[in-house]
Design brief:
By secondary structure, this protein is an all-alpha fold. The chain is 71% helix and 0% strand. The chain has helices spanning 3-10, 14-31, 38-45, 49-56, 59-70, 83-91, 96-114, 117-144, 158-173, 179-194.
Length: 199
Amino acid sequence: MTEVAAARRSRITPEREAELYAAVLELLREVGYDALTMDAVAARTRSSKATLYRQWGGKPELVVKAMRHNKPGGVADVDTGSLRGDLLTMVTREDDCTMERNSDLMRALAMAAHGNPDLMRALKELLVEPEMEEFQHVMRRAVDRGEVRADCPALEYVMHMLIGAFATRTLIDEQPPTQDFLRSYIDAVVLPALGAPTS
């Protein structure tokens, strides 16, 4: 078989890829990261293990790419004309129920990553760093529009603030993050820290 034929045979359609990612996240919610196996993914998705390894390299990459695929569009695509509008749009693209499920999943993955260097690397390289880069684009636009001073010390901590809101909502308030909570957090904490307009 030629290389071209081999590449054609191993290509996965976007629909099949989305199906696979949905099944991975379903399994992840059922059994957790540590108990999730490539055998279980292969069985659930009616795929061969060889195909999974060829396409994704291993469990950490497959799980993190499934998480990234599950996110509602790219952050850099959001451009409402104001930083407040951009941030509010970002946190309201998922309904409260979806946000709670995804927040729980992300928290569980972050915990698993502490004892798993491969998962930590995959999370950083495939999810955190690309999202940080996209988010920096949003913040640069706010600076270019004159909403935030270029030398504002809070600029480098915006992502920390937003992730902190998700993480501590459950820990401190024993409630899931909601659109209402995040909207009020952005107006009360994030925008004032940046010296940006809150209306």
